[in-house]
Design brief:
single chain; 136 residues; alpha+beta; 6-stranded mixed β-sheet; 3 helices; 6 strands; 24% helix
């Protein structure tokens, strides 16, 4: 039987990003949000809505999630937002969740999205995550 772990993935990933000293040197921990940005003071990071599918294997059950991270930084150059996005991708490589096992294809891509404001840049980073519970 599959188990939706998308909430666990989100909480674990936000906690990990907030604890990453290299990332918080670029974006303060209090500016990293799970869903909605409580403050839009630049720079900030927030996660997109969960998108999960069932996942089962011989060793355990869980879900496959497309984890979408939104990074916002000042413009007009994309240098700052891409620097932060690069650090988010590196942070993913060392993420070790405590309450579930994780694996997957990892980073899927980064895209710059126009915000309509010259002084704000927005990067969207996609990850593929398989989160599963080991059978007891």
């Amino acid at each position: 039987m599959a188990t939706d772990l998308s909430l666990d993935v989100r909480k674990s990933w936000v906690a990990h990003m907030r604890a990453d000293e290299n990332l918080t040197a670029l974006v303060p921990a209090e500016q990293i949000f799970g869903e909605f940005a409580a403050s839009e003071t630049l720079p900030f990071i927030r996660l997109g809505d969960p998108d999960a599918d069932s996942y089962e294997e011989v060793k355990g059950e869980g879900s496959r999630s497309r984890l979408r991270v939104h990074v916002f930084a000042g413009g007009p150059s994309t240098d700052d937002v891409l620097t932060i996005a690069k650090r988010v991708v590196k942070s993913f490589d060392v993420w070790e969740p405590a309450t579930f096992d994780q694996r997957g294809n990892g980073w899927q891509g980064t895209q710059i999205v126009r915000t309509g404001e010259d002084d704000v840049r927005h990067a969207v980073i996609d990850f593929d995550v398989v989160a599963f519970l080991q059978d007891a």
